[in-house]
Amino acid sequence: MSQDPPAALRIHADDSVAVALRPLGAGEHLLGVTLREPVERGHKLALTAHAVGDEVRKYGLAIGRATRPIAPGEHVHVHNCATALAGERAYARAPAAAVQAPATAATWQGYLRADGRAATRNEIWILPTVGCVGLTAEEIARAARERHAGRIDGVHAFPHPHGCSQLGDDLAGTRALLAGLADNPNAGGVLLLGLGCESNQLDALLAAVPEAARGKVRVLSSQSAGDELAAAARLIDELAAPIADAARRALPLAALTVGLKCGGSDGFSGLTANPLLGRLTDRLCAAGGRAILTEIPEIFGAEQALLDRAVSPEVFAAGADLINRFKRYYLDQGLPVSENPSPGNLAGGITTLEEKSAGAVQKAGQAPLASVIGYGAQATAPGLALLEAPGNDAVSSTALAAAGATLVLFTTGRGTPLGFPVPTVKVASNPALAEAKPHWIDFDAGCVLTAGTAAADAAFLDRLLAVASGAPTAAERAGQRAIAIWKRGVTL
User: Fold this and answer.
1) What is the DSSP letter of 291?
2) Per-residue pLDDT reduced to its tens digit, 244-270
């Protein structure tokens, strides 16, 4: 049954602040305090007095320290609260008890590949080795889409500006990322399109593609092909022939691999959308499926609880090393590890990186941390995987697809139109965004506050399974498909 949400919410009994669920005016009395000033929706109000240096607590965690005295009823934000994050940490493991998620018999209609993996789409992908042939790849894809319309789910090119003037680990990262995309089950066929003289040579890229996937891959060097457009058309026709007759079949929830992502977060993200994904993650992992969490800098400050769910000391150590390595990446550039949230996050009520992280990690629910994988690597073990990638929306979402995600679940409080190689399900944290941008948003998680978690969870699972079974996302309808590669090294 729908109900009116409260005016403000204290999330955890230990919290020293509450979140405004609507704009609040000075003089309003709620949760035992009288507001001393207006508080915008999604922003925080103090429930207790804070002296300078006192912890400000939300989600039951410290999200920063008071930088000046804060009285009950005051607005808490950047003017009186700041991060307490520093640099690397020595992590000590304190194993957390496993949480058993409810069983589900849910099924979806997907494509079962020869290697036993399941796909949510049956497409051909064109992956340029280098930026020089990116526009050529798009031209090839446009012609092939018309030629094969109705036979397969689509032909898509994914241009990028990299693949040349790169050295060492930087070039290896580009190669690993493209090889991972080539291995994604949603790509029933792949054309690796090269120029010929680039650093990212076709033979080395093909060798990086997992051996089991090489049968669905064709390669073309534009400089050697004569008429490269005609040659590419022949290769795509060859790739389309064996997959044109593929049919969807009923598959269990466990056959899904989902990527977990948030972008343009606001003060509601950690209350509605991210916990919604967390409960789905728990059910998926309990069923034997895979969920992939990334955006490592948006774990800083909330990592201990995640690491404590590691299934072994080795996984704990790998996760701790990844987080510290990422912090060192910042520190080596002379930058603070806490240079986050973004201007949009701040406007939405998020004050510190600790607060942003405490909300962001809720996408992973309470599932045990089963594996830790590097950038460009595949998530092969069932359960929750932690993937090396930054917080940038396009870079991290591309990395999720390269790790094997056949859906990306993307929560947002501010909104974004961009989609990625696999279906990208946009989940609004609040009804205002969902109402304003229905052409961007696939699900309104704000219903959690009115309909309750059980009804919201059921509706979200239905929507998720429909998309997995072929219903287009908002981004797919708009033709929003892109990749971005994490470039860390010098450019020659």
Assistant:
1) E
2) 999 999 999 999 999 999 999 989 999
Please name the residue that has the structure tokens 């090294």: 489
For the chain, which residues make up each domain, given as ranges?
8-82, 114-249, 253-477
Q: Which helix (H) or strand (E) holds 349?
A: none
Residue 394 burial (CB count, 10 A): 17
Q: Using alpha carbons only, give the angle 298, 370, 303 rounded to the nearest 5 degrees.
A: 25
The full DSSP string for 195-236 is: -SSSSS-HHHHHHHS-GGGGGGEEEEEGGGSSSHHHHHHHHH
Fold of 114-249: Rossmann fold (3.40.50)
Q: Where are the alpha helices (DSSP H) in 311-438?
A: 313-331, 343-347, 353-360, 393-402, 431-436
Question: Residue 475, class by beta-carbon neighbours within 10 Å (0-12 exposed, 13-18 middle, 19+ buried)?
Answer: buried
Taken as a whole, the chain contains a residue count of 492
How far, rounded to the nearest angstrom, does the alpha carbon of residue 203 sit from its chain's CA centroid? 31
Q: What does the alpha-carbon distance between residue 255 and residue 112 come to, in Å, rounded to a whole number?
A: 9
Q: What is the pTM of this model?
A: 0.95
Per-residue pLDDT tens for 446-463? 999 999 999 999 999 999
The C-alpha atoms of residue 267 and residue 417 are separated, in whole angstroms, by 20
What is the Cα–Cα distance from 449 to 460, expressed in whole angstroms? 14
Q: Measure the CA–CA gap between 462 and 476, rounded to whole angstroms.
A: 18
Structure tokens of 483? 């990749």
What's the topology of domain 8-82? Answer: 2.30.130
Rounded CA separation 373/293 (Å): 10
Angle at 204 between CA 200 and CA 205, to 5 degrees: 70
Stated as kind and residue range, the H or E segment containing 462 is helix 453-468
H/E stretch holding 128: strand 123-128
